[in-house]
């Protein structure tokens, strides 16, 4: 039997879900080592990242449950639960670091794919130069230098545009990440509140059921008393029913001794 189930069934359930995710992450990274295709590696990393996000959400929920139980458990139990939570956080961080390492290696592979071998000088340029005069060579050299300068300027502009786009994209991603984080935290809080409200509704339901039982018993007692009163009024000489105060028939008038004589 899970020791956490003795403390709280909700904690035991969350702990089981986190343990399942950790097993899935371990198996996923072992599978990732055997994948050679970059696209398949990227998809596997995305899947593992989703599991790590879910695990982070569950650890936050575990922490909220622990804080909710602080007032109802002894310090030793709360210390044990906090240590367990720290162990979960440490294990999750190890998988996050492993994911970053694989992502970096995958990015380096993609960069290598774009880097091709340098092109050599064309041989026909040399053949063409041998048939040209000095002035033509100078003009051709100046023309090539102008083209090179223009190409460098275009490259600078492209690089600057790329930097600007990258800066704007990074700022947008940062804002979206913060917004998504706030949304996730709000959803977690709503989910936690719904669970607490469900528990409260169940407790209220049990209390209402108890109150209804008491009211039914009182109703039966009142109905019985009313029935006895009715029977007594209809048949006041009925000796099977005990006299009810105020409804008993009047006692017979006693005669004095001297009135008899």
Automatic annotation (TrEMBL):
Residues 142-204 form the T-SNARE coiled-coil homology domain. CDD domains: SNARE_SNAP25N_23N_29N_SEC9N. Gene3D superfamilies: 1.20.5.110. The keyword Transmembrane helix applies. It comes from the Eukaryota. Residues 38-72 form a coiled coil. The chain crosses the membrane at residues 214-234. Pfam families: Sec20. Its main location: membrane. Keywords: Coiled coil, Membrane, Protein transport, Transmembrane, Transmembrane helix, Transport. One of its GO terms (molecular function) is SNAP receptor activity. It is a single-pass type IV membrane protein. Signal peptide: none annotated. It is found in: Membrane. InterPro entries: NPSN/SNAP25-like_N_SNARE, Sec20_C, T_SNARE_dom. This is t-SNARE coiled-coil homology domain-containing protein.
């Amino acid at each position: 039997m899970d020791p956490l189930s003795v403390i709280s069934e909700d904690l035991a359930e969350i702990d089981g879900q986190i343990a399942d995710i950790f097993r899935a992450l371990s198996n996923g990274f072992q599978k990732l080592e055997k994948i050679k295709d970059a696209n398949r590696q990227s998809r596997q990393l995305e899947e593992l990242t989703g599991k790590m996000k879910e695990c982070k959400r569950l650890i936050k929920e575990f922490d909220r449950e622990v804080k909710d139980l602080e007032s109802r458990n002894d310090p030793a139990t709360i210390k044990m639960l906090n240590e367990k939570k720290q162990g979960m956080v440490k294990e999750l961080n190890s998988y996050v670091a492993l994911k970053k390492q694989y992502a970096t290696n995958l990015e380096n592979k993609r960069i290598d794919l774009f880097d091709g071998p340098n092109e050599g000088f064309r041989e026909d340029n040399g053949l063409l130069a041998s048939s040209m005069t000095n002035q033509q060579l100078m003009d051709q050299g100046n023309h090539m230098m102008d083209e090179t300068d223009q190409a460098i300027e275009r490259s600078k502009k492209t690089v600057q545009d790329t930097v600007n786009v990258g800066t704007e994209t990074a700022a947008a991603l940062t804002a979206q990440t913060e917004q998504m984080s706030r949304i996730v935290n709000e959803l977690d809080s709503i989910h936690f509140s719904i669970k607490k409200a469900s528990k409260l509704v169940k407790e209220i339901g049990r209390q209402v059921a108890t109150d209804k039982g008491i009211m039914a018993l009182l109703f039966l007692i009142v109905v019985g008393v009313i029935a006895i009163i009715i029977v007594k009024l209809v048949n006041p000489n009925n000796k099977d029913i005990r006299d009810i105060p105020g409804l008993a028939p009047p006692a017979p008038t006693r005669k004095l001794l001297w009135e008899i004589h």
